[in-house]
Amino acid sequence: MTAHPSILTITDRIVERSKPTRERYLDQLNRAAEKGPHRGVLSCGNLAHGFAACSPADKEALSGDQIANLGIITSYNDMLSAHQPFEHYPELIKTAAKEAGGVAQVAGGVPAMCDGVTQGQPGMDLSLFSRDVIALATAVGLSHNMFDAAAYLGVCDKIVPGLLIAALTFGHLPAVFIPAGPMTSGLPNDEKTRIRQLFAEGKVGRAELLEAEAKSYHSPGTCTFYGTANSNQMLMEIMGFHTPGASFINPGTPLRDALTREATKRALAITALGNEFTPAGAMFDERSVVNGIVGLHATGGSTNHTMHLIAMAHAAGISLTWEDISDLSDIVPLLARVYPNGPADVNHFHAAGGLGFLIAQLLAHGMLHDDVRTVWGDGLAAYATDPKLGSDGTVTREPVAATSANARVLSTFDAPFQKNGGLKMMTGNLGKSVIKISAVKPAHRVVEAPARIFHSQKAFQEAFNSGALDGDLVAVLRFQGPRAIGMPELHKLTPLLGVLQDRGCKVALVTDGRMSGASGKVPAAIHVTPEAVDDSPIAKVREGDIIRLDADAGTLDVLVEEPVFAAREPVKIDLTDSEHGMGRELFANFRALAGRADTGASVLY
């Protein structure tokens, strides 16, 4: 089916805007691809180093240029639940590669940090920058020039965007992303939220809170709420980097292993040595980007991707803006209710029909480009299927059902949970920002209240605990941007703001920091750009100024007369305490080089 006219219009303007950079990128990609299998350019000494640790059979295979070699980039560590399952993937991939007549080598490892562990801690100040570190580390691994394709093992928040930035930088190579899958369901999300708010109010203690958290995050696999990690998996599938249906199969299951073996063999099938050459950079184009954004809106995905998608697109010479993302939100309905915009988790989403059902609905109504290339072949329709384990241990696929198995979790295009995606850009005299309102009730989407100024989560928490926060307020948490302290997530505010809202107060958050995919029921204008450290409007707001946040209209303003506001000197604060400890001193250059949130907050360009 032809894409909806509005989808085509937005896609066309991205294509037109991107022409100079995209053409330059594709020219570089084609020149790299024309060199053929890259081991052919290595000297005998180079090559001997590259296969010295291999078996005799693999050495013989790699001595020529007719056997495909798959480079594995892994984010494995066994502290983080999402990445622990990757421990055994290399051996599984190597065996599958041999069965397919190829070779696989671990090309390199990349760091994988968990925002859940570092929430509210100094280490969180490194989180956003870890994306670009991962891209750099991947480049080091692939720079050995031994590979005909790459398999990327990653799941969580910054890992997948960093891997994809690198995959597109090495866009002459095919790239297949292989996920680990979500952990099985634990404590229901609404119960977890209830315990967190009770703890914030002092009604339960640390022991009760830890018990609830441990029952929520309880085993290997991705956290089951629909934050950035699971938004990553949706994006990789709907943009064609996963094999169909791979995203949300639990780890340690026969189907999960079968999907991993299948992805390996598919990666080897699409190298330049075969007849289906699919270089990542040519496969991923403006239509792929739009498909990813549509998927993000239809599922109520992570606000982090208003930065990551821009950075990933840039790596392929594609110029994407917040305006593009916001305009797509206006026409894409919300079809999924997964925590935090509903009580269900991703396992419930998958059981209801999952991405296959969602893609089928969006394709049928012209919300997606079907005429795209994927690692599976031409066209996105192949992804509107449900993967099953065949009797021979391989993956089979069935057409998705015509109806959702749980309409409270996954609905149809004709009966959406809301008419738009709920992730939009806000503009006004405080600059630009983004807001996610898929979990915000309509009654809470417009807030006009006095500003309460804070320069740390700790200061806000102290004010809350002392009883100093009562009545309507807009919490302005500034100097949290990438150039100030690295743009940490601010989820320690979420339960506290939720308590104030439940007490009947009109509350909102305005910040140049992040809230990510777990943004919840309180309206939050985040990623405010320009950030406070750049002497921007948010640095001129004073305690008690009236701020109006209108999420429906997409506006964010301080209600101060323009001449008065313009004449104010921006506030400056001492950030020394945020520049040292837990490795932050090593990232001084990253803070100095970081771009604006609306251009991807990258240090790489």
- Taking all Cα atoms into account, the compactness measure Rg is 24 Å
In spatial order, strands of the major sheet run 9-10-14-13-12-11-15-16
List the total number of helices.
21
Shape: globular
Distance N to C terminus: 37 Å
Average pLDDT rating = 94
* Low-pLDDT stretches: none
- Counted up, domains total 2
Largest sheet: 8 strands, mixed
Beta percentage is: 5-15%
Number of strands: 16
Secondary-structure content class: alpha/beta
Task: Bin the helical content.
Answer: 25-40%
Structural topology:
Layout: H1 5-33, H2 44-51, H3 56-63, E1 69-74, H4 89-99, E2 103-109, H5 115-118, H6 127-142, E3 149-153, H7 159-169, E4 175-177, H8 189-200, H9 206-216, H10 228-238, H11 254-269, H12 280-283, H13 286-299, H14 305-315, H15 322-329, H16 346-352, H17 354-364, E5 373-374, E6 377-378, E7 385-389, E8 395-399, E9 423-428, E10 431-436, E11 446-454, H18 457-465, E12 473-477, H19 493-502, E13 507-511, E14 524-529, E15 546-550, E16 555-558, H20 562-567, H21 588-593
Parallel strand pairs: 1-2, 1-3, 3-4, 11-12, 12-13, 13-14
Antiparallel strand pairs: 5-6, 7-8, 9-10, 10-14, 11-15, 15-16
